[in-house]
From TrEMBL:
GO annotation (BP), single: enzyme-directed rRNA pseudouridine synthesis
Phylogenetic placement of the source organism: Bacteria, Bacillati, Bacillota, Bacilli, Lactobacillales
Catalytic activity from the UniProt record: a uridine in RNA = a pseudouridine in RNA
Name under which the protein is recorded: Pseudouridine synthase
InterPro entries assigned to the protein according to its UniProt record, in alphabetical order: PsdUridine_synth_cat_dom_sf (IPR020103), PsdUridine_synth_RluA-like_CS (IPR006224), PsdUridine_synth_RluC/D (IPR006225), PsdUridine_synth_RsuA/RluA (IPR006145), RluA_PseudoU_synthase (IPR050188)
Positions of the Pseudouridine synthase RsuA/RluA-like domain: 89-236
Length: 293
């Protein structure tokens, strides 16, 4: 059973019932139902009705005494991981380029999730989001499956968002900043690829030019949606393919894909605190950027 004990801190003189607080914490309605009928929400050690007002500095205990939506485990991996942040509930890892986020089938053991399985000697990792195999950077992983739906709701509400850095070839001029709103669908001619198509799912990317010369630009990118290969497809379609992209850049390749998930922002579960995690560029990517600019 997963148990979480929180000291509630009132914000802006809010007056919330237990029910309202659980909703604010993005706990699914089905789980709120379990908490109520099983009396598994305690205020200062005692159960109260869901209409009870929660007071500043009340001690709230949540007993997740019910099965999660998923309980997927992974085979142990063999590679060390770079931990950027860790607490009792989550771990943020800096994934290397060329490493899969998760195995395609459960008999594989050569992905980031396999390596985190080995690292968490007394627990298991639960995937919150993924990044492409060729992309390097930050990946947020939960240590309990009960947090995954909460983070999924943060992804939907944009309180969990990812910021990337990319170096692109300038096959076309680029404005200083902008928003790309183009739908993305499967490429019917190549199962590995995606393409811009009216039949696709909505995809929105914001970008800002940090520096540029006549042939390249360093961009800051924000995902407002999370489609497969979204940044790579959006940028290539506009004539700004990411350097060393093996699928969408026609230029000669000379190293790893220059796309790095350098910042994660999310709401710490069961709190009003926003958390920002940043990672340093790998030495290889830093050197390549310096060589270009």
């Amino acid at each position: 059973m997963y148990q979480k004990t929180i000291t509630y801190h009132q914000e802006n003189n809010e007056s919330l019932t237990i029910r309202e607080l659980l909703k604010k914490w993005l706990i699914p309605k089905k789980w709120q139902h379990f908490f109520r009928i099983q009396e598994d929400v305690l205020i200062n050690g005692k159960y109260h009705s869901f209409n009870t007002i929660v007071h500043d500095n009340d001690l709230i205990t949540l007993n997740f005494n019910f099965p999660p939506r998923t309980e997927q485990h992974y085979l142990p991996g063999n590679n060390p991981i770079e931990v950027v942040y860790e607490d009792q509930d989550i771990i943020v890892v800096n994934k290397a380029a060329g490493r899969k986020t998760h195995p395609n089938i459960m008999t594989e053991n050569d992905s980031l999730m396999n390596d985190v399985e080995t690292y968490l000697t007394n627990g298991h990792p639960y995937m919150v989001h993924r990044i492409d195999m060729e992309t390097s950077g930050l990946v947020l992983i939960a240590k309990t499956p009960h947090l995954v739906p909460i983070f999924n709701r943060q992804l939907s509400s944009k309180t969990l968002h990812r910021e990337y850095l990319a170096v692109v070839d300038l096959d076309q001029p680029i404005p200083d900043s902008g928003e790309i709103n183009l739908p993305i669908d499967q490429d019917p001619n190549d199962v590995r690829k995606r393409m811009i198509a009216e039949t696709g799912l909505q995809a929105v990317t914001k970008y800002e030019v940090i520096k540029q010369d006549t042939t390249h630009a360093l961009l800051k990118l924000n995902l407002l949606t999370g489609r497969t290969h979204q940044l790579r497809v959006h940028l290539a379609y506009n004539g700004w393919p990411i350097v060393n992209d093996p699928l969408y850049n026609p230029h000669q390749k000379n190293g790893k894909l220059l796309l790095f998930a350098h910042q994660l922002t999310f709401q710490q579960p069961f709190s009003n605190n926003s958390k920002i995690i940043k990672a340093k560029l790998s030495k290889d990517m830093y050197n390549l950027i310096c060589a270009i600019f």
